[in-house]
Amino acid sequence: MAERAVLIRKSTGEIIKHGFYPREDMQLIEGLDPDLEWLVKYEPFLVPDYDSRIYVLNRHEEVTTESHPDYPHLNVYKITYSTTKRTTEEIETSIVNAENNANEQVIPYTKQLKLLALSVGVLFRNIEGMELTVKEQAVKNKMMQVAVNVWKNDAKVREKIQQLSEGIEPNIDEGWETTETA
Questions:
Q1: What is the model's pTM?
Q2: Is 100 left (phi over 0), alpha (psi -120 to 50) or beta?
Q3: Residue (of 156, 149, 133) closest to 181 by Cα position
Q4: Radius of gyration of the chain (CA)
Q5: Mind giving me the DSSP string for 154-169?
Q6: Closest by alpha carbon to 77, among 27, 126, 40?
Q7: Mean pLDDT by 10 residues, the chain (182 residues)
């Protein structure tokens, strides 16, 4: 089976074509212009595991004169990877987005307005000294549960941003309150 390969012009280093090596048996190609060479694509290492919210994956491709480990008569077009840390601002945005996602699980967006409106009504009735009905007490209790979880997430986002400012790489997914209240 033919391997992925690159055709280059040796004199200029120009890549002419990406494709498959023209021979399935991977033997040398007779009659090929001496200024042209097929390089077999080779990735010596797997793509590293990384958190894309903290790092950017960089793919490096280079024409080499290194022999391919399986086809020593052919040279390698080497593909390697590295990661670069994102800016503090980008990572902070990812942390804030994680908090928003957690809060969305605590109380879905579609339920937020209704619960807030009902809670304000309950609050005004309570301030005016009116006795709360069973339903109103349930709204108050639910809003208090939501508030506790949102406060915990607020503390967690500040903790993670503080870690980031101290040069510590925070685990963006860890420690959020995500339980929807009944």
A1: 0.77
A2: alpha
A3: 149
A4: 30
A5: HHHHHHHHHHHHTT--
A6: 40
A7: 93 95 94 96 95 96 96 97 96 97 92 90 92 92 93 97 96 92 59
